[in-house]
Amino acid sequence: MTTAPDYRPRILDAELNELTSSLAAVAIEGAKAVGKTATASQRAKTSFRLDDPDQREVAAADLDRLMRAPAPILIDEWQHVPSAWDRVRRAVDDGAPAGQFLLTGSASPKRTGTHSGGGRIVSVRMRPMSLAERLDTVATVSLAGLLTGSKPSVGGQTEVGLDDYTEEILASGFPGIRGLKDRARRAQLDGYLRRVVDRDFDELGHQVRNPIALRRWMAAYGAASSTTTTFEKIRDASTGGHAEKPARSTVIPYRDVLERLFILDPVPGWRSTRSHIAELAEPPKHQLVDPALAARLVGATAASLLEGASSGPAIPRDGTLLGALFESLVTQSIRVYAQASEATVGHLRTFRGHHEIDLIVERADGRVVAVEVKLNPTPGAASLRHLSWLKGKIGDDLLDSVIITTGSEAYRRPDGIAVVPAALLGP
Q1: Tens digit of pLDDT for each residue in 373-398?
Q2: What is the DSSP letter of 78?
Q3: Domain locations in the chain as residue ranges
Q4: What does the DSSP assignment read for 255-277?
Q5: Rounded distance, CA 313 to CA 310, Å?
Q6: Which CATH number does the domain 12-125 belong to among 3.60.21.10, 1.10.150.390, 3.40.50.300, 3.40.109.10?
Q7: Is there a smaller number of Cβ atoms within 10 Å at the N or the C end of the chain?
Q8: Do 91 and 24 form a contact (C-beta atoms < 8 A)?
Q9: Distances (CA, A) of 77 to 30, 37, 47, 104, 201
Q10: How far apart are CA 382 and CA 385, in angstroms?
Q11: Among the listed residues 28, 23, 24, the one whose alpha carbon sits nearest the alpha carbon of residue 12
């Protein structure tokens, strides 16, 4: 792989190195602007940009032209010409060598008449930049190490504090947006959201009859970040409690299309495959792909977040909006780190809400690392209580327990629980 001088390496690069050395076709999926094209372009000799109308027309007229180009071949935004996916699949069936094709996609189309690609094209998810990719600090605590169950030593110090995390929430993990000055950044985020409403829905075949209602629903969803608020309450919040509100038949497509665009990135409820915690609930925890979008949708600023002021639609939550968006930021990062370790991420909540754990990182064998996310620099008794409860429930299947904070130092408590500032956690 030849790296351009201005390219900032991503954690996903290591996964792609492993996959492309053995597989003929790999698809990178994720929301627009997360960096898929930049990452894929580092590996490609030939690129076809199918979001360009001229290149799209040529490709649709002669798919074999895509196959004849010098490899590795990048087919960027393949969903604009769905038949390109099938053509790559057939090339793999015909014996294409490892590393022949890279595809990127910013939408998950309904593949009517399009083969899933299972067994031929392997899909990997790309999310916005994690904290380890954004910050010029050394991550001294590895999630992969915690997942070994060996209770590795934990240490390190950071000067990243609450103001810095607040800035990272607003700055965005989209590579092309985060380097902009405040007003330009806000304008770019607004433009991103407008495109979703005005163009992306239409490109997926869903006509938006009331763009204002959709934008209000997205704002309510953003306000519900890091909660398990019901979709009925989100619908109520989007209309300010007025009796007249959009029908469920209108709202459900919002959610479906936004998930297909990778804009919604909910965390599923964890279901243990190895233990029997009968009272687990399964509603997803709401998250947008980037907390900067949530902050922009509800009109939050650094000052309003740090002052604890309410912003946007009224959604019930424990704690402040800043706390919810800090959890979103940490969740986004941990999902990137977990993917590097072939682990999955869920959240734990019992039916009556007596016990909640923000994130459960699960290995393929079902054993887990439990993670609590706290805005305070030092952990409180409540988070310790929930982690101790889980240890009593699943025993040795709990590989490690971690509390992510805004503090300055990483350490292990006498009870073995790791306390780690968000800036010091990495893959």
Answers
A1: 999 998 888 779 999 999 999 999 99
A2: G
A3: 12-125, 131-426
A4: HHHHHHTT-B-PBPBP--SSS--
A5: 9
A6: 3.40.50.300
A7: N
A8: yes
A9: 10, 9, 11, 5, 16
A10: 5
A11: 28
Alpha-carbon torsion angle 7, 13, 17, 20, nearest 10: -90
CA 414, 417, 420 angle in degrees (round to 5)? 115
Q: pLDDT of 7-31, one tens digit each? A: 899 999 999 999 999 999 999 999 9
Q: Where does 86-230 show beta strands of DSSP type E?
A: 101-105, 121-125, 141-142
What separation in angstroms does the CA of 369 have from each of 114, 289, 391, 394, 403? 38, 22, 11, 11, 11
Backbone angles phi, psi at 373, to 5 degrees: -115, 120
| CA distances, 96 to each of 22, 49, 72, 207, 220 (Å) | 11, 21, 11, 39, 47
Is the overall model pTM greater than 0.90, yes or no? yes
Phi, psi of 221 (to 5 degrees): -65, -40
Contact at 8 Å (CB) between 103 and 24?
Answer: no
Distance CA 344, CA 82 (A): 29
Q: Encoding tokens for residue 153?
A: 């030593």
Q: How far is CA 257 from CA 80, 106, 265, in A?
A: 16, 12, 12
- Give 146: exposed, middle or buried? Use CB within 10 Å, 0-12, 13-18, 19+: buried
Q: What angle do CA 106, 109, 115 make, to 5 degrees?
A: 115
Q: What is the pLDDT of residue 242?
A: 59
Percent with pLDDT over 70 in the chain: 95
Alpha helices in 175-320 (DSSP H): 175-178, 182-195, 201-203, 211-223, 231-238, 248-260, 291-298, 302-307
